[in-house]
Amino acid sequence: MKKKNLEIITYGNDILRKIAAPVEKIDQDVVNLCREMIQSMKAAKGIGLAAPQVGVSKRIIVVLQDPERAKALTIINPEIIECEGEIKGEEGCLSLPGIIGEVNRCARVLVRGLDKKGAPFEIEGTEILGRVFQHEIDHLDGKLFIDRFSFVRRKLINKKLRQLKQETLAKLTGVQ
Ligand code: NI
After folding, report:
1. Which of 19, 33, 87, 152 pairs with 145 at a CA distance of 20 to 30 A?
2. Which residues fall inside 5 Å of ion ligand 1, going by CB?
3. 176 C-alpha vs ligand 1 centroid, how far in Å?
4. CA 171, CA 76: separation in Å to the nearest integer?
């Protein structure tokens, strides 16, 4: 049986602005969610996804780890414990289709979290991986990459943001 991909929540839905709760217990539901998030991320051709983006306000992220983008990594309750340097680079987000822009990030981060078995681990991220870690962990704190845009860039996308929000709200009321 082919599983349906999780629906990706778009800008305008309040869940994207909530601070996600830590995962207290890694049960089968959490493991299933991680697997479905990876599947949905790949289907959407993303390189990272945070649980709030699929409507679950929990501290879980998945990222595509290697350059071939085949191997996905799950981090439960991720935390940035080291951040070094600064680097500017272009980002996009599955929850904000059609919007891209430059964002300043730490050049190198060290992330600590739990794997799907609950074992603690640390992983270093530089370049794209470091950027994805920071972008996805931001999602868990209700932050979006557009919040980090320059004033000028933010002004330029304002209209697009309003449209996107309207579309999201229309979809939400349509379902209810
Ligand atoms: Ni995103």
Report:
1. 33
2. 93
3. 25
4. 30
Cα of 52 from ligand 1 centre, angstroms: 10
User: In the CATH scheme, what architecture does the domain 14-173 have?
Assistant: Alpha-Beta Complex (3.90)
How far apart are the CA of 90 and the centre of ligand 1, in A?
A: 12
Question: Whose CA is closest to 74, among 65, 61, 64?
Answer: 61
Q: Give the residue ranges of the chain where pLDDT is below 70.
A: 1-3, 67, 69, 175-176
36 C-alpha vs ligand 1 centroid, how far in Å? Answer: 17
Active site residue 167: no
Set 7, 122, 127, 136: catalytic member: 136
Whole-model pTM: value is 0.94
Question: 55-77 pLDDT, tens per residue?
Answer: 999 999 999 987 676 789 999 99
With vertex at residue 7, the alpha carbon angle to CA 20 and CA 131, rounded to the nearest 5 degrees, is 55
Residues 6+ apart with CB under 8 A from 116: 26, 30, 31, 34, 74, 76
- Name residue 76's beta-bridge partners: 60, 114
What single-letter amino acid sits at 143? K
